[in-house]
Design goal:
There is one protein chain. The chain is an alpha/beta fold. The protein has a single domain, classed as 3-Layer(aba) Sandwich (Rossmann fold). Helix content is 40%, strand content 15%. The protein is built from 6 helices and 6 strands, in the order H-H-E-H-E-H-E-H-E-H-E-E. It has a 6-stranded mixed beta sheet. Helix 2 runs parallel beside helix 3. The longest helix is centred in the first third of the chain and has 33 residues. The chain is globular and about 40 Å long.
Length: 202
Amino acid sequence: MLHDAHGDAEAFAKEDQSLLLAFADLWADAEAVWERHENAPAFHGYVSADYRAVFDALVGLRGRATTILEWGSGLGVVTIMASRMGFDAYGIEAEMDLVDYSRDFAMQYAPQAKFAMGSFIPDAFDWNPANGDEVVRTVVDAPSGYDELDMQLRDFDLLYAYPWPDEHVLYHNIIRQFGRSDAILLSYDAREGIDVVRFDGT
C-alpha cells in the first residue's frame, strides 16, 4: 500500500488550523491576565512572545524532537501549545503566581502539560563570567525546578527560551554543561525573532 504523503500533509494542515483556533483563545486569556496584573511583582520579568511565530517553529520541529522544556515559562503558553501539538511538554518558572496561572490554563487547554516552580539553571551549573555567563534579569537565586519534575536537563531534546539581551551565551553554556549533545534550542528575541540552534552542529 502506497503512503499518501499529500493526504498526511492535508490532515496536518486541518489539525493545525483547529489548534490555532484554540490557541487564539489561549493567547487572549493570557493577554487578559497580563493586562490585569502587569504591575504585580510576579510579572516584573514577564514578557510574552510572538506566539504565532513560535507555533510555526514548533510545526517545523515536529518529528525532530519529542520532549520540550520551556525555560522561564511565565503563563505557560508555549508549553501548553507544545503539549497540544503532540510534544511531551514541561515548563519551569521561578514565580509561583505564574506557575499557578499556568496550571489553571493547562487544565483548560492541555491537561498533560506539566509545570514546576524554580530556576531552570541546574544547581551545579559552573558559573564563569569569562565564558560569557552574564545575567540581565534571569532569576538565579532560586533552587532549580528539575527535582520537582523528577527530570534533568539532558532528558529534553528541545528547549524553548526567551533570553534577555546579553544572556544568549549563558543559555548556550547551560545546555553545553547539562543538556543533551543533540539538544535543540528554540528561542525568541523581540529584536531578532525566532532562532533555532542545534548543539550537534547540524
